[in-house]
Amino acid sequence: MRTANNTPVKSIGKKKLSIRLKPRHKPIHTVTFEVFPELNHQMILGCNFLEETETTFNFQNKMTTLGNTAINMSTDKQKYATAAISCDKKVDTKAKCPIKITEIANAQPEIGHISNVTHQINMLDNEPIIQPPYRIPYDLIEDTKRELQLLEKQGIILKSNGGWATLAFSKRKKNGGIRLLNDFRLLNQKTEDDPFPSPNITDT
């Protein structure tokens, strides 16, 4: 199955639902919906839905009719009319997000990291990259050392005597802390591509 822009999508199943359009006295329709977990839209109405609800489109008058209900259409991108099925349970995401973020920050104040996964970087050749280090501003030296010691203590970084040396530097954060930065551009040029599909942000 493909979307309107010809993108292939895979259905994980079907679900038959009984729906009732606004207003409440309208008849109940039984429609079979396909489930597509990777789509961003909450719902896309297809031909079976339009046929069941006796929907008609009048592009000359820019009107859509669902049974006895008329909906005005607009070609203005800022004023698209939307025909939606109401949901009895609504979640105020904007109001809950700051609360959830605060809960996570309080529950795990330290830097989170995963220690049960091993990642391997395959190189195009074995010639090491050796770059001279950036100079760290004098007023950042002590804070940078403390940040490195903290990351080493938490097991996020390790000391190495290998033959590779890529650029790294530090910058002052707005809150006064230290942000460590790495310049891996040359390293990336010598790294084999390992394509992996990123999950949809709405699914994660």
Descriptive tags:
204 residues; HIV Type 1 Reverse Transcriptase, Chain A, domain 1; three-stranded antiparallel β-sheet; two-stranded antiparallel sheet; 4 helices; 7 strands; elongated
Q: CATH superfamily assignment of the largest domain?
A: HIV Type 1 Reverse Transcriptase, subunit A, domain 1
The top level CATH class name of the largest domain: Alpha Beta
Using the alpha-carbon principal axes, give the shape: elongated
Annotated CATH topology of the largest domain: HIV Type 1 Reverse Transcriptase, Chain A, domain 1
Q: In total, how many beta strands? A: 7
The averaged pLDDT comes out at 76
CATH architecture of the largest domain: Roll
Protein name: Transposable element
GO molecular function: endonuclease activity; nucleotidyltransferase activity
Keywords: Endonuclease, Hydrolase, Nuclease, Nucleotidyltransferase, Transferase
Topology:
Blueprint: E1 13-20, E2 28-35, H1 47-52, E3 55-58, E4 63-66, E5 69-72, H2 93-107, H3 141-153, E6 167-172, E7 178-183, H4 185-189
Antiparallel strand pairs: 1-2, 3-4, 4-5, 6-7
Keywords: Endonuclease, Hydrolase, Nuclease, Nucleotidyltransferase, Transferase
GO molecular function: endonuclease activity; nucleotidyltransferase activity
InterPro entries: DNA/RNA_pol_sf (IPR043502), Peptidase_aspartic_dom_sf (IPR021109), Retrovirus_Pol_polyprotein (IPR050951)
